Amino acid sequence: MKPYRRSNVPLASELRQNMTKYERLLWYRYLRSCPVRFQRQKPIGRYIVDFYCAKARLVIELDGSGHYEEEQELYDKKRTAYLQRMGLKEIRYTNLQIARQFKEVCEDIYQHIAYVVEEHN
Length: 121
What we know:
Elements: H1 8-17, H2 21-29, E1 39-44, E2 47-53, E3 58-63, H3 70-85, E4 89-94, H4 95-100, H5 102-120
Parallel strand pairs: 3-4
Antiparallel strand pairs: 1-2, 2-3
């Protein structure tokens, strides 16, 4: 994996301290106690991803309403392409999915990490 930008470290720390309510919900109710380790607000290259599991090479992004604006959509596409070139898989969920379909989101995440969990046990 390419090294991260040192300038992103303070921003990542700030983002961890000021997570959205949807990020907090997913982190504290599922990812924090997941059988494989996830990191939150992880710098990867020039980007900071919401959640990252190194063993599964998995990035999880939560999209609020701002992600549907044209400029943000273009930025997200560039970031997704970069992450794919790094050999990472990115999955995205909307804040609405976190709020209304939390169990299904967690089950979907588990499907993406199940093979790693099996190796881990």
